Amino acid sequence: MNYKVYGIATFLALMCISCQSIKINRTSMHTSVTNPIALGVIGIQKKDVLSSDYRVSAIPEYKEKIRVGVTASEFTTTTFDAYQKVSKDNAQQIKYVDSLESKPRFVTLKLLDRVATLSELQKEYNTTTISYLKSQKEATIVTSVSLALPTGMVEEIIASEAVFLSNSGYKQYHLSLINGGKVSKKISFDRTTIFGYELSFFCWSENDRKQIVLANIIDEKTSCSKNAYRDAQKALQKMNYFKL
Q1: How does residue 63 score in pLDDT terms, banded at 50, 70 and 90?
Q2: What is the reported pLDDT for 235?
Q3: Is 10 in contact with 106 (CB distance < 8 Å)?
Q4: E strand intervals along the chain
Q5: Which conformational region is residue 210 in: left (phi greater than 0), alpha (psi within -120 to 50 degrees), or beta?
Q6: pLDDT for the residue 142
Q7: Three-state DSSP state, 15
Q8: Do 83 and 192 meet the contact criterion of CB atoms below 8 Å apart?
Q9: pLDDT tens sequence across 26-40
C-alpha cells in the first residue's frame, strides 16, 4: 500500500470537508453549492470529497407558529466569503471592509420549540411528509440558519420582542416579528440569503397506543435516546419483536 498517496488523499479529503463548513458562534454550520431555502425545511445532505449539496425534499406546513431564537453577529472574512459564494452578485448589498472597526451584521435563527415542531409535523396536513420521513432515515430538518439581510431588517429582527416561523402561503415560509403582543412585520425567506445551516435528525419510538411515531429531533452528531431509533422501520421491527 502506498501510504504517502493515502496520506495525501486523506489530507485533501479533510481539507475539502472543512471547506464545506464554517464556525459561527462556536458552532459548526454547513455550507454548500445549494443551500436550504428556509428554516424548517426537510431534505438530505449530499456530500463527497469534492462538493456538498443540500437537497430539499419536503416542505412541511406550519399552521401554528414555531418560536425562533435570534442571534446577531458581525461579519468576519470567513462568514463574508461564505455569503459571497452563495450570492456572487451581493444581492443584499453588504458593504464589508475588514480594516474598518464597524462591520455589518448577519442573523442566526434557530428553532427553539422542538416540541411544537414535532407536533406540527404529525398533524393531518403533514401526512405526506411523515410518510417520506418513515422511508428515509437520512432525512434531516434545517433547525438553524445564518443569513444576510439589509441592515434595516437585521435591526428590526433584533429589536423584536419575539420571532416565529410561519407559513406565508402554500409551501412558503416567513418570519413573523412580534411587538406589543401582535405581528408587526412579516419577512419572507425569499428576501434573505442563507449561507450557513445546521441540521437535525429525527428519532422514532413506540407510543402508548403501540404506534411508531416521531419522538424527538436531535442534533446531527448526537444519538437517539434508549428505545428510540433514527430508522422508523427499525423501531417497528423492535416493537414487533417484543410482541412475540
Answers
A1: very high
A2: 82
A3: no
A4: 21-24, 27-30, 42-47, 52-58, 66-74, 105-111, 140-148, 162-169, 172-179, 182-188, 193-206, 212-219
A5: left
A6: 97
A7: helix
A8: no
A9: 889 998 777 788 999
CA distances from 185 to 108, 176, 180 (A): 18, 6, 12
- pTM exceeds 0.85 for this model: yes
Mean pLDDT of the chain: 87
C-alpha cell of residue 135: 422511508
Pairwise CA distance, residues 18 & 12, whole Å: 10
* 234-242 contacts, C-beta under 8 A, 24 or more apart: 234/137, 235/204, 235/205, 235/206, 236/212, 238/206, 239/206, 239/210, 239/212
Nearest CA to 108 among 71, 82, 141? 71
**Span 93-141, pLDDT tens digits:** 999 999 999 999 999 999 999 999 999 999 999 999 999 999 999 999 9
Q: Domain boundaries in the chain?
A: 3-196
Phi, psi of 203 (to 5 degrees): -120, 140
Euclidean distance between CA atoms 75 and 92, whole angstroms: 13
What is the identity of the amino acid at 183?
V
Q: Which three cell numbers stand for residue 51?
A: 462538493
Strand pairing partners for 187? 175
